[in-house]
Amino acid sequence: MNFASPGTQTAIFVCFIAFVGLCLLLCTWSAPDTDDASEFYTAGRSLGPLGNGLAISGDYITVVTLLGTSGVVAAAGYDGMLIACGTVMSLLLVMVLVAEPLRNLGGYTLGEALSRRMPGRRVRVAMAAATLMVCLPFLVVQLSAVSTLLSYLLGFDGQGAATVCVVSVGILMISYAALGGMRGTGLIQIAKIVLLCATVVLLAALTIAHLHWSLSALLRAAAAGSGRPGAFLRPGLEFGTGTLGRLDDFSLLAAVVLGAACTPHVTMRLFASRDARQARGAMRWAVALTGVVCALVVVLGLGVAAVVGTAGARPGDPSTLGGVLLLSHALGGQSGTLVALAACTIFATQLAAVAGVTLAAGSALAHDVLARTRLLRASRERREVVIARLGVLGIGVAGIALSVLAERWNVIAMVGLGVTLAASTVFPVLLYTIAWRGFTRTGLLWCVYGASAAVLVLTAFSPAVSGLPGSLFPNRDFEWFPLQNPGVVTIPLGFALGWAGSRAGRRAHLVDYRDFEVRVLTGVGVD
Amino acid sequence: MSWIPPLMSSAEPAARHRGTLPRRTGDARPALGALRKEARRSRSRAALALVAGFLGYAALSLFAPALAGRPVAGVLTVGIVIGFVQIAVVIAVAAGYTRAMRTRVDPLADRVLAAGQDHVYFADAAAGGEEYR
Question: pTM score, two decimals?
């Protein structure tokens, strides 16, 4: 489908090139002139609370929120509002539970922070594996959304052209992440979140103005436009109103609230704060900004249903991603400026998210695994940055390859996989490490490997992969696990495995717990 | 810091040598105990309010849809009204947590740090904490 006139397409193209150029400028201008590892991984801890808060919310609010959540609101109404609410709650939960202790532990990656309590290679490899598993679905979603949007804007349906776009955009952003490190991507995130906020505020204001500044008129029009006026403002449209559908929905929401912000690209930004109190201040800014954006995203989703109409749309289908563009087209009329602005914002969001997620995954691979192999350990400090850049490039290439393969998969299912993995592995491990004295290395390994294997197996045999029209393989049917989102099983399983492993394994006290506790509470000795 | 007993008595030179805190001084360090208690309390309170509030809202919406869908005024239903209440919950928890940390926890952490200035553990850790690398 193609609604953009040639003039609009030119405007979009100019905006796009301008943003790409701006990113390049930011990256080269801010690029460290030394091969200092701390500079690459934490930007030298130079951003203040406001700057870091903007960067955290920039890393946290991705295309998944802007287009995915608004798409679910547009297609399923009430269910989408629950997801938006859970997204804000999750970041706040990370702020109150783990942000400050994690910053007090210090380091560059999750693996290094946890190794303060459990030194050794196995823990770091396990946390790197968890980081990669959580990051890859996010990366794939961001990249595959690029091609969906380009087909909306430029009007080509060809698989080949879309693949070329995904690959070239992916390579561009990955080289930004590899070049700029934490400071470069941080500046990109700040530029993007400012643009995103401005656009979302403008679009939401125009939407409400279109409906005569009346919230109830908006709700009524959205319910009518969805084609299911009776059910739109009630729960159950996304997964059905049967017991299993409800359980599936609950499962997704639990995974979102516990896992969405426990993702490595968000936690990595915490290490870039100067100390725990600055991390708290940064998280406060981030939560405030995320709350405003999520509320406005709900308004946009309702606007899509009310102004454009979403009768027959299936929640999470890649086709629902274009809703915000269609809305800006409908509101902007013939001029096309609004479409160009919205398109540019979406591209900026995608590019920044690709850079942020790739950087987090690549850092974990490089810092926790590659830099500690015997081959590469010599002359570490100097080579560490080179290894980190290689790690970022490697992850990026893997992400591009996967996203070309999984182009038409349900976005919500893919994101659901990422947040379920985070909620079942990273969240229990962080909570136990910070707050439970009896937690041991065996418990950590059981939790990370056991729970993630459970998530992957249950998802592979769920309707998200086979058996339904919206599945990854709609023509095959090997599903036996009834829920698309296994979180309701795997989150308790992660906690149980962490507990059982700690009870079963050898209780070797590698680090004196008192010392560790002083460090968690006060941050003494943190670099 | 005169009101805080020394973190380590001179009767335990072995501990000083290893650069770790002595093992049997838990009751001799009220500042650390108080810090642990206050930090745990403000964190768990905020987290519990969030998780219970949100999952309760989700469970009500999904498993009692008749109640959540009951109209209040116009198009507003009970569920949508609770959704607005969640916004208030976010603001209240963020503000309450920040205030609790600033007024109760931060001063205690400062006291623990001040008391430990001349302690061998802090000196070691500040010098790089090499044993954790």
Answer: 0.88
